[in-house]
Each structure stands twice: as C-alpha cells, then as structure tokens.
Amino acid sequence: MKSLVVSPRRAKKTPGADEVENYLRDNPNFFQERESLLEEIRVPHACGEAVSLVEKQVDVLRATNRKLQRQLEAIVDIARENDALYLRLHRLTLALLDANSLEDALAGLQWALHECFQADVAVVRLLEPLFECPVADLFADDALKSSGAMIRLLASGKPDYGKVDPLLAGQLFGERVNEVASAALLPLQHAGLKGVLAIGSASADRFHAGMGATFLMQLSDIVAARLYSLLPECKG
C-alpha cells in the first residue's frame, strides 16, 4: 500500500511592489470602492522638509474623524444604558401596579429596587398622612420630620444623592446605616402624601453629585403616585 505523502504547506507569498503597481493600474476604481482605506494609509508629498498643505489637511481630517467616531460610540453606549434603565423602570412600575395593598406595594418596591437596580438598602418614610399600618418603621419620627435636610429635600422637590449626613442616614436607615456608603434621597409628594424614598448603596461611587436627576425624578413621581392611590382613605 502506497503511503500518503503530505507536502508542506507553502507560505503565502506577499505581492511585490511591481505586482501591486500593476494591479492598481488594471483596477483604477480600487480606492473608490474602498474609501475607508484612504483614512489609514499615508501618501507623502515631495515637499522637502516642509509638510504639504494637502497632507496637513488629511491629518486634521483623520483626527476629526477619530474624535467623531469616539463621540458616536459614547452616544451609542449612553443609548444602550438608557434603554436598559427604562426597561428596569418599567419592571418596577409593573411591580407597583400589581400590588393590591400598601404593604404589597412596599414589598414590591423593595424587590424591584434590589433585583433591578442593585440597591443594598431601600426604605420609605412617610411624614403625612398618619394612619394605622402594620408596616414597621413606615412613619418618620419627630426628629426626622424636623430635620433641616428633610425640610430642604421636600421644599426643593428634587432628589439628593451622594454621601448622606451621618445623623440623617441613621434616622433613615436605622440599624442598617453601616451598610450605606452613598445614597439617593427621593422626595415623595403626591396630593396628601409626603415622605421620602431612601436608596442606599455599599459603594461610595454608586450615587454622586454628578449623576443625572431625570430618572430619579421619574421614579419618585411613580412611587409617590402609586403609594398615594393605596392609602386607606383613597381606597375608600
């Protein structure tokens, strides 16, 4: 039986300069069909030690193109993050709408903030109205009601985030205050309801002064409106 002889694979031959030149002569439309290649190659101009105006313009255009490309990639990344964020907000809204009682809504809110937004600690403290409720620590005590930070938060109607004052953090998070390195405080105000939703994170960088407030304001409005609709006096 004849043995099978396998010849060694030949290395791919790199075309020489003459071959490239002849190919380009035979294919004059080569660069028209591959315009992006012109952004990568450099064609020097014989201007001695000086840089030709054309070459300088090409360099500027390349730099501008790279900058625009980076900006476009950043915009796409932000769009993807916003899509994911609003999908999580949608899930949280559904969890609140599925609740048939205030207790169920608070439990659903806790679940959604933990599962969808990776919150380590989340608490709701109501200032008004007062009513009978089995949920422990739902109502703010007198110290929290009279807190200057709480008064300013409700007066502004805007979320506050970052590192929380230790005294205020203790009033809000209670025994779990040591788990909170940064927090977002969302005012809850809708009709006769006043309170705060405090979302705490073990990461000091999770909530910071430079972050956008639009999403947190939407979350605040949704939570306040749904909790108000489940108040005993509103359910009739």
TrEMBL record:
Q: Which Pfam families match?
A: DUF484 (PF04340)
According to the UniProt entry, where is the signal peptide?
none
Q: Which InterPro entries match?
A: DUF484, GAF-like_dom_sf
Name of the protein this chain belongs to: DUF484 family protein
Gene3D superfamilies per the UniProt record, alphabetical: 3.30.450.40
